[in-house]
Amino acid sequence: MIVRETSTALRDENGHIIELRGTLRDVTAHIEQERLREQMLEELQATNKKLKETQSSLVQQEKLASIGQLAAGVAHELNNPLGFVTSNFNSLHNYYQSLKKYLETWEELLPKLKNGNGNGSASHPCIVEIEEIKKQENVNLIFKDVEDIFGECTDGFQRMTSIVKNLKDFSRIDHAEFIETYDLHSGIESTLVVARNEYKYVAEIEKSLSDLPLIECNGGEINQVLLNIIVNAAHAIKSQGREDAGKISIKTYCDDVYIFCEIRDDGPGIPQQIIGKIFDPFFTTKEVGSGTGLGLSISYDIIVNKHKGDLTVKSKVGEGTTFAIKLPIKSANMIEVFAHE
User: Fold this and answer.
1) How far is Cα of residue 4 from the mean position of the Cα atoms in its chain?
2) Residues 189 and 234 in one domain
3) Which of 12, 38, 53 is the last residue of a domain?
4) Which of 15, 50, 229, 243 shows the greatest Cβ crowding within 10 Å of its Cβ?
5) What is the per-residue DSSP string for 291-314?
6) What per-residue confidence (pLDDT) applies to 266?
């Protein structure tokens, strides 16, 4: 038993204690309740810590999944220009061997002509042999084709350079953890390059981009949101198994405080009974193993919680889905969010 004592002293007119009065109260239950509350608080804090660690781990897994998806798409995109660049350089090597043989023959026979071993006419055996080698090795064709090959190689190198640049712009590697000035249109373009392998066989892209100011945000995270929505739109259209190409429309506009980006697809649409769940963690309509169900949840967190914007969705079955992104042009609150992460 745990007791709590309370005592009071009674004094006379001279201040002398003449009586002590006290009470004893059983506080065992109260102390046990306090201990239980402290224990529950500790357990709650430990659980909250584990949840944050789990959330961080899941977010990281989603990012890794996106990176894997991007890597596959970029590898495919790089493979095309790399293929013809490699093929062209193999052709250049073969052409070089032919030109080498022709020039070696010319170098071998040229002294004979210079020494006056003939009258220099077109019928001279040396000249005939040179012309024959020139014909056999298709020298005239080679010189013409080499110009085309160099042109194609230059184009291939430029395409590969562009893909790598857009991938870097998309990931914002140099500014991964910082607030920066961000051009939404550049973000859209780089994201479309990165995601091209996901939509190019199933949908056409239609853009209606208005003049926009630069905004203050974490550009890499905004690009991740754009990627999630565009890839989801492509997958939705692909799920229909249609013969004709679908359409993904991207529209931007702004007012004095916010910029807006609407991404619409003409896919199957989302049933009303589940549209309220699409931003919930782990919710997905894809087959098991095809998605983590975190893409839109993370997108919502990035836009609404971190950037103090808004992310909404409207959809009608049979007509398609529209995601609307609303971002503040400037936001001190957003900067505080990142500063405390």
Assistant:
1) 64
2) yes
3) 53
4) 229
5) --S-HHHHHHIIIIIITS-EEEEE
6) 95
